[in-house]
Amino acid sequence: MAIQALFPTLVYRAPLATIRVRHFDQSLFDECQALAASDAAGQRWSAKHYLGGYTSYGSLDRLHLISTLFDRLRRQIDRHVTRFIRSLHYDLAGRKVAITDCWLNVMPAGTVHSLHLHPTSFVSGTYYVAVPKGAGALKFEDPRLSRLMAAPPRRRDAPRAVRPFVSMTTRPGDIVLFESWLRHEVPPANYAGERVSISFNYAWAPATSGGRGS
Known about the structure:
With 214 residues, the chain is α+β, with helices and mostly antiparallel strands. Helix content is 25%, strand content 29%. It has helices spanning 21-38, 40-49, 63-66, 68-88; strands at residues 11-15, 54-55, 95-108, 113-116, 123-130, 138-141, 165-168, 174-179, 184-186, 194-206. It has a 6-stranded antiparallel sheet. The longest helix is centred in the middle third of the chain and has 21 residues, at 68-88. The N and C termini lie far apart (45 Å).
């Protein structure tokens, strides 16, 4: 008997860096809090679309272009994205990869980030600045779920790789990368403090076109 695993879904998780990450995270945390407090347009957008929390997705979604600190983060993320892309075996000869969007999220207890994906990009991810104990985990959905038309439920002891949903707990300093078509969410949770993260998208283009490469 031969059983093969085909069409795997790859998710990358690693520490952003191995040195001075606490000092860097504190600087990021302070800048995120200052941005959240001063971004009136983002506060209005979040009141309608991000109940209970704040995101700069609808107002300041290219933070790597307006903040030297976020651009330092972008340079670190670039290295991880390069490693992840190598694992995905994409042919990037004659093509370049660059970050297109970068925004911050502040989630107090009870805030929900519902199931979604990231169109117009091919690699997306999140860097975790602050993760209070008990904060909501990043939850991925099996991309085949809508096609399992007559399938029975999975057993409670089913291996992680075949479950319909998989939750990934994270720590401050972690970076998580995934292909942009993979639906994901952050369910509500009860905890003290605020869960602060920075999300981003990467896209590719022919090397001869304009724009910045990574």
